[in-house]
Amino acid sequence: MASGGRGRRPAGSGTREAIAAAARRQFGEVGYQRASLRSIAAEAGVDPRLVLHFFGSKQELFASVVELPFDPETTFDTLMAAGEQGLGRRVAEFLFGILDSPEGRKTATGLIRAAASEEEAAATIRELVAQRLLLPLASRVGRDRPELRASLVASQIVGLAMARHVVGLTPLATASRDELVAALAPVFDHYLTGPLT
Amino acid sequence: MASGGRGRRPAGSGTREAIAAAARRQFGEVGYQRASLRSIAAEAGVDPRLVLHFFGSKQELFASVVELPFDPETTFDTLMAAGEQGLGRRVAEFLFGILDSPEGRKTATGLIRAAASEEEAAATIRELVAQRLLLPLASRVGRDRPELRASLVASQIVGLAMARHVVGLTPLATASRDELVAALAPVFDHYLTGPLT
DNA sequence: CCGGTATTTCCACGAGCGAAGAAATGATAT
DNA sequence: ATATCATTTCTTCGCTCGTGGAAATACCGG
């Protein structure tokens, strides 16, 4: 990768993708602030200036690179299509499927760390969550106040991820997956299908 | 305050308290990283070196200064003493009492921002929450798995504060207090007194 | 084969940060 | 009165950061 000397590299070097991948990984690992342009460039084996050449600014790089660790549309279709019987449990199971996979957990904690640490990053994440998560979920909730229901679910998920994986709060961090699924399922049921008044 | 010239000030200047107050305010407002020793010193009307003179390091300053926005012992006594009837609702009402007051909200968001942005700060906060929040709460839960129940409540509270006040997620940020109390009360009831299996 | 353009590096700036050395000054105890 | 101590500031160090200017090199259309 590091062949020294300046100037353009031989064709198809895929540098832009390498930068994007490194950025995704570092934003996910340490959040927005602590992932520096310099460290991202270093991981991509590239001069820091090149990152700005392709993406303009750190903020734009972040916005170009954040993504959810799953596809909301198909996920929600699958979860909701099976009916309201056992819905909360399926949501909880799916949640821990994400949180117990290394990449899923990193993406989740990275989004949380980024949202908490920088106003600009928080705005980007707010749009991402609102448009690509809450909107599709709300559209599949066949009840009153679908947006409120969707965001209540999101709030419990964020809190769990934060307490369990960012802060490392016991006993949440050490409880078994089954225990947590059992505890959370009725809550998701309530938020999605229960009476809110 | 700024009378220039170096050397000791007239007796009982209360400088240490002024620094602590400024630090508390700034950590609460912008989190751990973005509250710099220099900005804290400036707010306290004091040379930056003095902050380190009194507190040793930024990390020690943070640990000396973080606190909860209420007293857990008396709060939990009051909440639980009224019996399990309406417990979840009382918890929710109390929560919004904190979150809707300026200082309470700042402290809450500050704790969240700090925990998310720095490993050292997260450790300090983990201890604070575990010892001064979860332990007293768990001791008053007359059920199985009291620690798990307490931390589940905490996780929903953290998620709500994060979504509502850090990210500013609609419709949580705009929903009325009464709506949210109604939606959350059954969840707190479930976590505190419901069957977890 | 040649001119333009996209890619890539080197270098530098100005700012901010946490931390520490050393000196000055007032309080305090003797 | 004087020596000691705590407090306070000035100054500096070494580091990292985001960003921009300018040059070098390779690819691509003619």
Describe the structure.
Two copies of one chain form a homodimer. The first copy, chain A, is mainly alpha-helical and 197 residues long. Helices cover 72% and strands 0% of the residues of chain A. Chain A contains ten helices and no strands. In chain A, helix 1 runs antiparallel to helix 2. The mean pLDDT of chain A is 93. Chains A and B meet through helix 1, helix 7, helix 8, helix 9 and helix 10 of A and helix 1, helix 7, helix 8, helix 9 and helix 10 of B. Chain A binds a DNA duplex (30 and 30 nucleotides) through residues 4-11, 13, 15, 36-38, 46-50, 52-54, 57-58.
Summarize the helices and strands and which ones pair or pack.
Two copies of one chain form a homodimer.
Chain A: H1 15-34, H2 37-44, H3 48-55, H4 58-65, H5 72-81, H6 87-99, H7 102-117, H8 119-139, H9 146-166, H10 177-193
Helix pairs in contact in A: 1-2, 1-4, 1-7, 2-3, 6-10, 7-8, 7-9, 8-9, 9-10
Chain A binds a DNA duplex (30 and 30 nucleotides) through α3.
- Quote the average pLDDT of chain A: 93
Q: Outline the low-pLDDT stretches of chain A.
A: none
What fraction strand of chain A?
under 5%
Tell me about the biggest sheet of chain A? none
Number of strands of chain A: 0
Put simply, the count of helices of chain A is 10
Proportion in helices of chain A: over 70%
Greatest contact pair? A-B, 47 and 47 residues
Run of helices and strands of chain A: HHHHHHHHHH
| Overall body shape of chain A | elongated
State the separation between the terminal residues of chain A, measured CA to CA. Answer: 60 Å
What would you call the quaternary organization? homodimer
- Which structural class is indicated by helix and strand composition of chain A? mainly alpha
As a whole number of angstroms, the C-alpha radius of gyration of chain A is 19 Å
